[in-house]
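ping. complex inputs:
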Amino acid sequence: MADLHFLANPARFRRFSQRVLPGLGFATALMLAVGIYMAFFVAPEDYQQGKTVRIMFVHVPSAWLSMGGYAMLSALGASLLVWRHPLAALMARAAAPVGASFAAVCLLTGSLWGRPMWGTYWVWDARLTSMLLLFFLYLGHIALSRAYDEPERGDRAAAILALIGVINLPIIKFSVDWWNTLHQPASITRLDAPAIHNSILVPLLWMAVSLLFLFVYLVLLRTETEIDRRRLENAEAAA
Amino acid sequence: MSGFTALLRRDLSLVWRRPGDVGVVLAFFVVATVLFPLGIGPETNVLARIAAGVLWCAALFAALLSLERLFAADYEDGTLDLLLLAPWPLELAALAKCLAHWIVTGLPLSLLAPVLGVAFGLDGPSLLALMATLLVGTPTLSLIGGLAAALTLGARKSGALLALLALPLCVPTLIFGAGAIETLAAGDGIVTHVAILAALALVALATTPWAIAAALRQAGE
Amino acid sequence: MTPKRRRLWLLLGSLGTLGIAAALVLTALNDNLVFFYSPTQVAEKNIGPDRRFRLGGLVEQGSVQKEGQLVRFTVTDTNKTVKVTYRGILPDLFREGQGVIAEGSLGPDGVFTAREILAKHDENYMPPEVAKALKESGKWKDAK
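pong. complex structure:
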């Protein structure tokens, strides 16, 4: 009975994802190509930072996606623990490495941006430290979910960790307001108008949407693989 | 409540019969801390500046070392199954286990740290501040460590995994604990830092028992 | 007590504990926990010589003097100022009127000797023409 329930939803999901993935992949590639062109050739240089401002077009969307990805991981964890949704576990397994990669890209590009602008690759201020912790939380989630001989136990343990780690998200977001940090405060998510001129804002938002497409594409693709893998393991165990 | 004290008494008497387990943790704490003056050299002002950070990190590692066995013995001999079936809340059982862990590691580490602080050339007020921050901060380490121990119950390579899970969550406590002694050296009071350490401990107290209970339930399934 | 009632009490206990924690943080939070001190805070705190800390503020207009590798400038928060000397390479964004964070210590003469200079940039991004037009039309709003 439990086996049938396990197969029902993932199977439907797999049919859905197989229909969507090729089109989504094409759209992602197209949007990224346009976005990169805009970022490098259309967007003007900044009045203070010159060409270096172009790092923002990757850095900022990566930060958003890594935080959004962790929020998603927690939501998936909750739906696994509360409703025992079998797809949630596989999707969390698929999403964690993608989110961790975006967090790593955010940290690396931030570091490369910090060197010329701030004069240092790294400082231990509240924003940078809390972002590094997010990366470690991702690593913990990945390691924990794969540390058990029965994968279901790893899924549930990692789900609990994802729910605890969500405390870090508001700390990252508001660290620049609560403490005197070297990192500047938010430019876009604030109550009055964004502090970015439209000629820079439009490429930034375009890149954010393109990378969101990439995120969704990678997560769907990896979830499909996880479904196949779990099926194979179950078949092996049954044989 | 009687279940809580009974479990606490049981865990403490288990340790009482095998004091070597606590002795090893304290010995690790002393040896790890003493390595720093040997590695860095005898310059007292350098040592005094890093003392708080070194002692806090060593205390954190020492507390983690003993955590791997926190639930493992109960898991293996079936005590955990009885706890899961018992009619009183598993959350309280989790709290009792963490409290027992703090009494046999956090408390002696906090009392031992000022003695080692002397070797680092810390002055009187700093030694007191070190002990105070450790007393307020180490319960958080026991609670977070307890959560990591429950999550990794029965996992492969659970020791390293436990550290990977617990260390990031302990960072705020470490920052404010070590930061308190630094502010004291700057001539400011440490009340703010102690208050924040206490707040962190209370947050851990309010949240981790639920998470530990959830982790133990899924381990027992 | 039924198990359900017991869990309810536990939940209430947890929420109460969280409330106390929040109250503690709110009463404790003041300017003690910062990445850098402003010149006003430096004046208020009477920070002694030989203690390393970070000083943050704006580089005062017209205060930068360069003598080879040696740079002298004044950091201001529009209320108090601190004189700074620094020997070394400056970050790209270091310029007059911009945010800066200097790490070092105060000398007995009240001059801050910086060992490291970090430039802090604000959250505004725009092309140079727009910045120029804004300044000319008088609509330029200062960072603070």
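The helical segments of chain A are 2-42, 56-83, 86-117, 126-145, 151-165, 168-178, 198-238.
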